[in-house]
Structure formats: C-alpha cells, structure tokens
C-alpha cells in the first residue's frame, strides 16, 4: 500500500472561496505588550495568530477557575444541590462567605465562581465533585493533559498561590478553547451581574458583579489610554471568560471576542495594573484588523480522493468531519494558500462510517493555517474497496452531499428530464403520423380519379 500526500492550490479545488487581500492594518511585536506572556488564537481553528513567551511557566491565579467550571459542567447537572462542607468557608482571598450546611444549585455556584471569582465556592464544588481538593486537582491535571495543556500542573481549584500550581499562556488558550464550546459557560461569563437568592443560612441575597470590566466599564475609573485617545474599558467585541490576580501572578486575563465572523481567544499573564486591559485590547484588535474569516469546507464536504492500492486500485472519497473555518492574514495572496492531505499512518481496510482516516492541512508561505480531520461517510470493507458494485453496496450508492454538489446534481437532473421530454414528444409525433392516413390526401386522389377520361381505342368521330 502506498500512502500519498496530495498538494495543490485552493483555487484549483475549492471553488467559490474569495480571499480578501490587502495590507496589514498594523504590526504587533512582543515588545508592544506589557505582559510577560501572551497569546492570541483563532477560536474556530486553534491557529496561533500571535505569541509572546507563550510556553514560559507562569502562575495562573483565578484563570484556574475556567478548568474548575469546565469539569463541573462536564460531570454534573445544573439543578443538582450542593451542600457546603465544613472546610470550604475558610478559603482565603475573594469569596462570597458561604456557610457550612448552606445549599446552592450547581448553576448558582458556577455564577459565583466565574463572576465573583469566589475561592470558597471553588473549593466547595471541588469537594462536592471529588471528595477532596487533592482528588479534584488530579482530575484537573488529567483533563488539562487531554486538551494539550501539557505544561500545566494544578494543585487547587481556585488558583491561590502555590509554587507547584503553574501553567503557560499556550496551555490556558487550549483550556479556553474547550471551555467556550459549552453553551452554559459562555452564557455565564458574559453576564454582568447575578443575584443569589436568600438561603436558610443567609437571609439576604448576594449580589454578584462580574470582575471583567470589558463587559461594563464606562465612566470615571474605567478609562485606558489607547491609540492616542482616552477610551472606556468596555469593549463590545469581548464576550467574556476569566480574570485573575495574586501578588505573584499579577494581572491575568483570558478573554473571548467575536466580531464580523471572527472568533478569538487571548491570554495575558503577569501584566501591571490597567496594562491588563490595554494589552488585551491590543491583542484583540490585532486579530480583528489583520485577519479575514474564511470557510474552506462545509461539514461533510467532499475534499479529495485517496488512491488505495489493494488487489485492485480504487479511489476512496475523503470528507470533512466538520466545517473547516480559519482566519487568513489580510495581506495573503490566494495563490500562496495550499493544502495537503495525509492518510492515517498504517491505513488499511476495512473502515467504519465516520472514522477518521486522514488529515487536511492548509498552509501559506510554509506556515500552517489550520488542520482538520477527514472521514469516510460509509462503511468501506475489502469487497467494496476491490471494486464490487451491487445494489446493496453502500459505497456505490453514496453521493457527495455538499451544497455545491447538490446544486450541480439538481441542474443535471432537470436538464435530463427536459431532454427526455423533448425526445418523447418527437417520437410520439412520428408515431401518430405513421398510423393515421392523411384526409387531404384522400380527397386529392378522388378529385384526380373523377377528372381522368376513360381510355378507348375507338375513333370518337365514328361513334
């Protein structure tokens, strides 16, 4: 079996994609940011758009709570009732002063965790989930590794100082990319305020304010100097996520942003004061102004064919598993974008429907833009791969279901029907003419007969 890599320009295979070219709005260098570490990524593709010291080990402070919230959302229902244990109320730092024996829903505690950054609530959730802080930290580390955050080590659910509690800007971006896939988490982190109702232990409601001033920061005390102007911290493009601060970590912020079809994640670690907001705004605007959003393929679009050489050479269709979307530098030339299809190492038959059998990678100027899995939409076994075609062979019956292919198929069917109707109309006309005598012909024959004189050998004059 020979595994081939296919490489060609996007313009020759993916029709209908328009790349908007132009010069970059502004350049960004690591020295332009105050933060020690930073990263900007496309949240649709995971593509890195900018980074500064992104793999340096750093303290994450309360940005840790993204992972805490993610684990709770993945393993519990929002309406579950949590009873506060005896240890959690003594957590230090930011808290809402929960009381032993007090009860909350998981949903209520998540609002307190992500808006008020409550350390006591983080510990209560951890103990509720895993029985202890230590056991929950093990689950956090396991999940981080699964997400590709390989240089992260958590020791607690809230980010309180610990020399062993470390991460990187890159790792936090991987965690954030997974976190924003959760609808409830996205809803919570964009909420400005939330009221916890009174409980049997606390007769007063608790009013929670989001620590992310990008959502509401206007007026006096909420200003930054940006591009020669004094502007409000509030920025509509930013949709949420998590702030953090400790003396050791300094200002930290993981943000999500969306505008004009572009979706971004930025991470700022160890910034000073309001530089947190200045650096975040600079990163987000760099992504919004220097990149265009493009969809390379819809979900389950036919991407290419792979020549599989078994007993007989056959072509195996490769489909996109999901929509393939990424940000393209505004200054790029369409001719510079290429893609490469690579089959799974050791690929062989049979394969099951939906199984990943390859990967497609899009690049420009030698730099990777994005990559995505390729799948088969049918079961393919040894017999179907050898070219057998029967009524029950699903491979034989399969069609390309991409929108463009369906439009072309519809046009072909319509033209075929029109041609069939035209042919049948002509055939029916000929058949009728052949079966029915012409009345006008009969009349003409009669007139001809009546006008003809009888033939005679006698002389008329002698008669």
Automatic annotation (TrEMBL):
Region annotation (Disordered) maps to 430-463
Q: Which GO terms describe its biological process?
A: cell wall organization; peptidoglycan biosynthetic process; proteolysis; regulation of cell shape
> Which residue ranges does the record assign to the Peptidase S11 D-Ala-D-Ala carboxypeptidase A C-terminal domain?
291-382
One Pfam family it belongs to:
PBP5_C
InterPro entries, per the entry? Beta-lactam/transpept-like, Peniciliin-bd_prot_C_sf, Peptidase_S11, Peptidase_S11_C, Peptidase_S11_C_sf, Peptidase_S11_N
Q: Where in the sequence does UniProt note compositional bias of the Low complexity kind?
A: 442-463
Claim: Secreted is one of the keywords in the record: no
Q: What is its EC number?
A: 3.4.16.4
TM stretches of this protein: 405-423
Binding positions (substrate): 242
Main enzyme class = hydrolase
Catalytic site = 62, 65, 117
Does the keyword field hold Signal?
yes
Superkingdom of origin: Bacteria
The Gene Ontology terms for molecular function here are: serine-type D-Ala-D-Ala carboxypeptidase activity
**According to its UniProt record, which reaction does this protein catalyse?**
Preferential cleavage: (Ac)2-L-Lys-D-Ala-|-D-Ala. Also transpeptidation of peptidyl-alanyl moieties that are N-acyl substituents of D-alanine
Q: Which UniProt keywords apply?
A: Carboxypeptidase, Cell shape, Cell wall biogenesis/degradation, Hydrolase, Membrane, Peptidoglycan synthesis, Protease, Signal, Transmembrane, Transmembrane helix
Q: Which residues form the signal peptide?
A: 1-27
Physiological role: Removes C-terminal D-alanyl residues from sugar-peptide cell wall precursors.
Protein family (similarity comment): Belongs to the peptidase S11 family.
Name listed for the protein in its UniProt record: serine-type D-Ala-D-Ala carboxypeptidase
């Amino acid at each position: 079996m020979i595994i081939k890599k296919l490489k060609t320009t996007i313009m020759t295979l993916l029709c209908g994609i328009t790349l908007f070219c132009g010069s970059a709005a502004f350049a960004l260098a690591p020295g332009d940011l105050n933060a020690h570490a930073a990263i900007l990524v496309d949240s649709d593709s995971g593509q890195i758009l900018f980074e500064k010291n992104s793999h340096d080990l750093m303290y994450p402070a309360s940005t840790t709570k993204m992972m805490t919230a993610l684990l709770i959302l993945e393993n519990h229902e929002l309406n579950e009732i949590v009873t506060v244990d005896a240890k959690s109320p003594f957590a230090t730092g930011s808290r809402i002063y929960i009381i032993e024996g007090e009860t909350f829903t998981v949903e209520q505690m998540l609002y307190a965790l992500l808006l008020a950054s409550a350390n006591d609530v983080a510990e209560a959730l951890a103990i509720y989930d895993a029985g202890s802080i230590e056991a929950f930290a093990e689950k956090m580390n396991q999940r981080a590794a699964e997400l590709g955050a390989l240089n992260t080590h958590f020791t607690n659910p809230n980010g309180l100082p610990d020399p062993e509690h470390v991460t990187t800007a890159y790792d936090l971006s991987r965690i954030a990319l997974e976190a924003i896939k959760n609808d409830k988490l996205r809803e919570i982190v964009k909420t400005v305020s939330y009221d916890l109702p009174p409980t049997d232990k606390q007769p007063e409601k608790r009013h929670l304010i989001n620590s992310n001033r990008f959502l509401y920061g206007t007026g006096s005390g909420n200003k930054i100097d940006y591009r020669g102007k004094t502007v409000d911290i509030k920025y509509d493009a930013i949709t949420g996520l998590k702030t953090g601060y400790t003396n050791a970590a300094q200002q930290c912020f993981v943000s999500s942003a969306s505008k004009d079809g572009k979706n971004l994640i930025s991470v700022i670690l160890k910034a000073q004061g309001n530089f947190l907001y200045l650096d975040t705004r600079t990163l987000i605007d760099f992504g919004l102004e220097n990149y265009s959003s493009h969809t390379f393929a819809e979900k389950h679009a036919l991407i290419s064919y792979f020549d599989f050489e078994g007993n007989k050479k056959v072509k195996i269709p490769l489909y996109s598993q999901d929509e393939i979307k990424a940000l393209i530098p505004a200054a790029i030339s369409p001719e510079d974008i290429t893609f490469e299809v690579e089959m799974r190492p050791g690929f062989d038959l049979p394969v099951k429907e939906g199984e990943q059998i390859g990967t497609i990678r899009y690049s420009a100027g030698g730099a990777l833009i994005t990559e995505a899995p390729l799948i088969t939409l049918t079961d393919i076994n040894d017999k179907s791969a050898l070219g057998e075609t029967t009524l029950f062979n699903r491979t034989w019956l399969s069609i390309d279901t991409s929108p463009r292919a369906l439009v072309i198929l519809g046009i072909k069917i319509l033209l075929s029907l029109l041609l069939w109707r035209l042919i049948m109309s002509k055939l029916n006309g000929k058949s009728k003419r052949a079966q029915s005598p012409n009345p006008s012909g009969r009349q003409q024959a009669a007139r001809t007969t009546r006008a003809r004189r009888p033939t005679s050998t006698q002389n008329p004059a002698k008669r």
